[in-house]
Amino acid sequence: MRKYTRSITLEEATDVVVVGSGPAGLAAAIAAARSGATVRLVEQYGFLGGNLTGGLVGPCMTSFSLDGKVQLIRGIFDEFVRRMESLGGAVHPSQTVSGSPYSGFMTFGHEAVTPFDPEVAKRVSMEMALEAGVELLLHSMVVDTVVEDGAVTGIVVAHKGGMSYVPAAVTIDASGDGDVAARGGASFQYGRDSDGGVQPMTLFFRIRDVDDEAVSRYQAEHPEERFPFESIVERAHDSGTYSLPRRGVQLFKTLEPGVWRVNTTRVTGVDGTNVHDLTMAEVVARQQVVQLMEFFHHELPGMENCRLLDTAGTIGVRETRRIDGEYAITLEDLTEGRPFEDVIAVAGYPVDIHSPTSINGPFDDGVPPTANVYEIPYRALVPAQLDGLIMAGRCISGSHEALAAIRVMPPAFAIGEAAGIAAARAVADRRAPRHIDVTDLQERLLRSGAYLGERMSTPDPLITTRS
Ligand SMILES: Cc1cc2nc3c(=O)[nH]c(=O)nc-3n(C[C@H](O)[C@H](O)[C@H](O)COP(=O)(O)OP(=O)(O)OC[C@H]3O[C@@H](n4cnc5c(N)ncnc54)[C@H](O)[C@@H]3O)c2cc1C
User: Fold this and answer.
1) What is the average pLDDT value for the chain, to the nearest integer?
2) DSSP state, 56?
């Protein structure tokens, strides 16, 4: 270790700075700006969206209750989807069913997913942020956190011009990894209780020139397969012909004929907060893409002539730090659908754990099903130790199992929206985020189109429900 001291430039202060523009940060920045705060959104890449765009991750998993009947995640998420839909870039979740090509032929938990075009997502996310008045700071990576008297007062970013100090009254950490909180000294949990193992990384890629009908025909003829092409993958494993990283091929049809997203590379035992692990994981996953393409050509019906369309700009990291909050969400909170006085979002996606050590998962680890609807409390967004900071997205406080459900993109949008409104209120009322009026936050969320469950809402004829 070496001590390093240097003067750095100072950016103008804003009320709120949001770190990370994935589903959580995007919604947080829009919501905070719409609530009257001056907002700066800091992102290491040159576009917005995080995994939604740069990670090529999709479809958005369900925004409905587990039974697929009631749309739970509305507000900014629904607005975002409908704007993409109006540009021909998405199918609204109310129009998709489980077991279909859009849901990757999966049934459990895969009712009402949202297929979308990542380029349209890039366009709509930037338009919505700019329209709300969010100031963007792209190509800027947060490298340090400034804490004064126990409160985060700003962040240090590195960029082509060097380094800058970016001050703000409230910071929202939507970096996925809890970078701001961790650098500010917040305590956190990492991995599962038994051995600290985290979910594997996956590099998404897309393929084109797929014979869609042949793929669907094969799946229809093999309803016993939990993952597409599972028996072919198993034979390849047993014969030693191919060494494949997963139990089956997890693939999702996109809006374009012949184009599918593939969620099948897998790198285990790597830490998404360690640059050497990230580097190694990119190398390994990109080698796996080459092997998988060969396997597809030779072994999979409908894939004989497919071609690689693109790989994601970055490997996808499913799990790293979970920052200790005023409340840590437990698996039982989700399985029992426990009510919280400070509910700020509801969701219905089940616990989705890709094994930290093997080719298994998701949904084959014996974790009980979640309730049809479960609640997310505001206290899980408030770091236990630091003031001036709100967490949003997959780094909020909860167990390995609980976060494996909440981590998907629709809940991240809903949590982000709540974090954004909370940050704006904290600034307006001159209170620490942990001391804001949560009833007022809930009323503001409801007024801006969010849904907080039956208990908190009056019946709304516009709610999207399905029989
Ligand atoms: C392989 C994989 C498959 C998945 N499959 C699905 C799926 O099919 N459907 C689904 O709904 N969800 C899926 N998920 C889950 C989902 O994509 C993420 O959990 C979700 O995107 C989390 O949102 P977020 O906003 O918290 O973080 P992210 O989407 O990760 O966004 C974080 C943002 O912060 C930026 N950032 C990070 N650190 C810094 C820093 N220090 N400085 C500046 N910027 C920074 C990043 O560049 C990024 O833009 C998957 C995830 C992975 C990894």
Assistant:
1) 96
2) -
pLDDT tens digits, residue range 176-208?
999 999 999 999 999 999 999 999 999 999 999
- 17 bridge partner residues: 40, 171
Q: What span, in angstroms and rounded, lies between the C-alpha atoms of 13 and 422?
A: 19
Helix (H, G, I), strand (E, B) or coil at 415: helix
Establish whether residue 263 lines the binding site of ligand 1, counting it when its CB lies within 6 angstroms of any ligand atom.
yes
Neighbouring C-alpha atoms within 13 Å toward the C-beta of 466? 17
Please write down the long-range contacts of 363-369, taking CB distance under 8 Å and 24 or more positions apart. Answer: 363/108, 363/109, 363/226, 364/226, 364/247, 367/331, 367/401, 367/404, 368/331, 368/335, 369/66, 369/108, 369/335
Phi, psi of 450 (to 5 degrees): -75, 165
Please, what are the domains in the chain?
Answer: 9-195+319-456 (3.50.50.60), 205-311 (no CATH)
Q: Which helix (H) or strand (E) holds 291?
A: helix 275-299
pLDDT band at 467 (very low <50, low <70, confident <90, very high): low
Instruction: Tell me, using a 6 A CB cutoff, whether residue 128 lines ligand 1.
Output: no
Q: Check if 178 has its Cβ closer than 6 Å to any atom of ligand 1.
A: no
The residue written with tokens 């490997």 in the block is: 315
Q: How far is the CA of 228 from the centre of ligand 1 (A)?
A: 25
The first and second tokens of residue 261, run together, are 């997203």
